[in-house]
Design a protein that fits this description.
Blueprint (H helix, E strand, L loop, with lengths): L8 H4 L19 H32 L5 H15 L2 E9 L6 E7 L3 H7 L7 H8 L4 E3 L21 E8 L2 E11 L7 H46 L3 H15 L4 E7 L5 E8 L2 H4 L10 H5 L4 E3 L16 E11 L2 E11 L7 H64 L3 H29 L10 H16 L4 E5 L2 H4 L2 H22 L4 E6 L3 E2 L18 E10 L11 H11 L5 E5 L6 E8 L1
Parallel strand pairs: 11-12
Antiparallel strand pairs: 1-2, 1-5, 3-4, 4-5, 6-7, 6-10, 8-9, 9-10, 12-14, 13-14, 14-16, 15-16
Helix pairs in contact: 2-3, 2-6, 3-6, 6-7, 6-10, 10-11, 12-14, 14-15
């Protein structure tokens, strides 16, 4: 057994005197400094990615913060510029027809510079390339690309470019344009990925804004249609309600001019009501036969993107406006009229949604118009029934009593001894005859509506002329008719008779200073070769002369002074002589006032 004590292990293996001692290698020799640097860079990259993701999330939240579409588009452009450190950003909204831009929101260019640049881009060059091919596009030098159109005067210099389409489902809404990355570098693939992610979120936000604005627009159209319906059903005057409809449709369609078109009896369309620019020039005008009127009467909607350049536009005034939309007002398969709106030149065309809203508005307005017509027809029927009752009472009671009174006076005149009494009684009988004629005219007026759909006969036109003259005279002339004037007086003679009546009433209003004017149209007279009435029994078959018509206007005014102007009478004479008649004047009854007579052959 070895008695040598145990020694530590290191004591048992002492190095040889000529052996070098063992040393720990340095860190640099192991490459750890490179590893640390790489780790630090990756940590910094991760931090940068985390920061960019945080900024992306903040941008996404900011984009969806509101529902106003224009404000949303501005937030999208601003957020994209901040995410990729771009100096300039823009968002172009593609036009509904897919060609060019309908809106352009820019960030980084102030209003003063934008004003110096002038018109906004319309979608050519690089911007048009993104429209034609909606895919991400990165360029290091805009000017070097063959598709570039260059920049207009006063436009800031731009070199680097990043473009990204914004989609809403399968529809390309518009494009994001980013230029001039800060620091002078080019946009990176990472920038493209971030903008792509923002564009996806922007599509959702834009769709929400569009749906919100579409809901507001639909609500406005529904409220406008309700207002028109209320106006049509609550007033007896359809003209007032249709004027309201013209104003409503102009405001709802963001148009410069709104019109209500109504069909005429000869199959044309007339502008019955208008509101907005140039309304006074189109109100009451007939649409040309070769315009859109025929299509509207056939129940077809008509729209044009720009009337100022459309070769089919035949209305000269329409070329001063831009987009137009015309929709028929149809109820029970009947075209009652049409709505037409014109936007200013350069405005956006009407969208499919706006066309549908306008057609719904027109249909509801047409239904309300039909209901209002039914209400007015019922009210008119009640008035006509009351008029018929009054007319029967006048005919059966009043006229019969007047006849009886006249016959009693004629009997008394035959028994009278004093000549003056006979004359006075004869005058009273004449007054009764005149009163009977006036009552008959009143009965006719009660039984025939001289407005609306009543036949436009000579009798109704004479009554209308006398009603219109009441404003100038200060009172309504009395009117009487003798004989079947409607069937005996032709259209040509009737037009000249109305012109003569208009001139005679005008002269009475200006010169007579009368308190009473009477008008009589007699179609039972016969005229001699000079155009003057011949005497005799109107019912006799042996009367001389040729059948004619006699127009008499009598007033109780100051009369025609000696040497007074007779130019008006000369005009009447020329009209009468052209029809084989004559015109002359004489003192009125009892020497007071003036009686003017005008004749024409039948």
């Amino acid at each position: 057994m070895d008695s040598t004590p145990d020694l530590p292990a290191f004591a048992a293996s002492e190095p040889e005197p000529d052996q070098a001692p063992h040393r720990v290698p340095e860190i640099s020799s192991l490459g750890l400094d490179t590893l640390v640097t790489e780790v630090a860079e990756r940590l910094q990259s991760a931090a940068a990615v985390t920061d960019r993701m945080q900024r992306l999330l903040e941008a996404v939240v900011s984009v969806g913060a509101g529902l106003d579409l224009h404000a949303t588009l501005h937030r999208i452009a601003t957020g994209a510029a901040e995410l990729v450190d771009a100096r300039y950003a823009a968002l172009g909204v593609i036009a509904p027809n897919g060609h060019g831009l309908s809106d352009f929101i820019h960030v980084g260019i102030d209003d003063a510079v934008a004003a110096e640049i002038g018109e906004l881009p319309v979608g050519r060059g690089i911007l048009g390339a993104l429209i034609d091919r909606p895919e991400p596009l990165r360029l290091t030098d805009l000017g070097a690309d063959p598709r570039s159109f260059g920049f207009p005067p006063h436009h800031p210099a731009m070199k680097t470019f990043l473009g990204e389409p914004i989609r809403i489902r399968d529809e390309v809404f518009g494009n994001l344009y980013l230029t001039e990355k800060r620091g002078g570098g080019a946009f990176t693939p990472e920038d493209e990925q971030v903008v792509h992610a923002l564009a996806a979120a922007a599509g959702v936000a834009i769709e929400n804004s569009r749906l919100y604005e579409e809901g507001l627009r639909r609500e406005r159209w529904i409220a406008g249609a309700a207002a028109v319906t209320t106006a049509l059903l609550s007033t007896d005057q359809a003209e007032v309600a249709l004027t309201i409809a013209a104003e409503q449709v102009r405001e709802l369609a963001d148009a410069a001019l709104g019109m209500i078109l109504l069909p005429t009896v000869d199959g044309q369309m007339r502008v019955a009501h208008a509101s907005g620019e140039a309304a006074e020039f189109v109100r009451g005008e007939l649409l040309p036969p070769d315009s859109f009127a025929a299509r509207l009467l056939a129940g077809e909607s008509v729209h044009l993107d720009d009337m100022s350049t459309d070769p089919t536009v035949v209305i000269r005034l329409a070329r001063s406006f831009g987009p137009s939309l015309a929709v028929p007002m149809v109820a029970a398969s009947r075209v009652l009229g049409g709505l037409c709106v014109w936007r200013p030149r350069g405005a956006l065309p009407f969208t499919d949604g706006e066309k549908q809203l306008a057609e719904t508005f027109a249909s509801q307005a047409a239904l309300a118009l039909r209901l209002a017509e039914g209400q007015r027809d019922q009210q008119r029927l009640a008035v006509f029934q009351d008029r018929d009752r009054i007319a029967r009472d006048l005919h059966d009671l009043v006229i019969q009593r007047l006849f009886a009174t006249g016959m009693m006076l004629e009997g008394a005149a035959r028994r009278a001894i004093v000549p003056e009494v006979k004359v006075r009684v004869g005058e009273a009988v004449d007054e009764l005859d005149a009163t009977i004629q006036e009552v008959r005219t009143t009965i006719y007026a009660l039984q025939h509506d001289d407005h609306g759909d009543a036949p436009d006969t000579l009798r109704t036109r004479v009554l209308r002329e006398c009603s219109q003259a009441a404003a100038a005279l200060g009172f309504k002339p009395s009117v009487s008719f003798v004989g079947p004037v409607e069937s005996l007086v032709g259209e040509k003679t009737g037009r000249q008779l109305l012109a003569a009546l208009r001139e005679m009433l005008s002269n009475a209003a200006r010169h007579a200073r009368a308190s009473r004017v009477g008008v009589e149209v007699d179609s039972t007279v016969h005229l001699d070769d000079d155009g003057r009435p011949v005497g005799g029994d109107p019912e006799s078959l042996d009367r001389g002369g040729r059948p004619g018509v006699l127009l008499t206007v009598t007033d109780d005014g100051v009369g025609i002074p000696e040497g007074g102007r007779l130019s008006g009478l000369r005009n009447l004479t020329r009209r009468a002589e052209a029809l084989g008649g004559d015109a002359w004047h004489e003192p009125g009854p009892h020497g007071r006032g003036t009686r003017v007579r005008w004749t024409a052959r039948l």
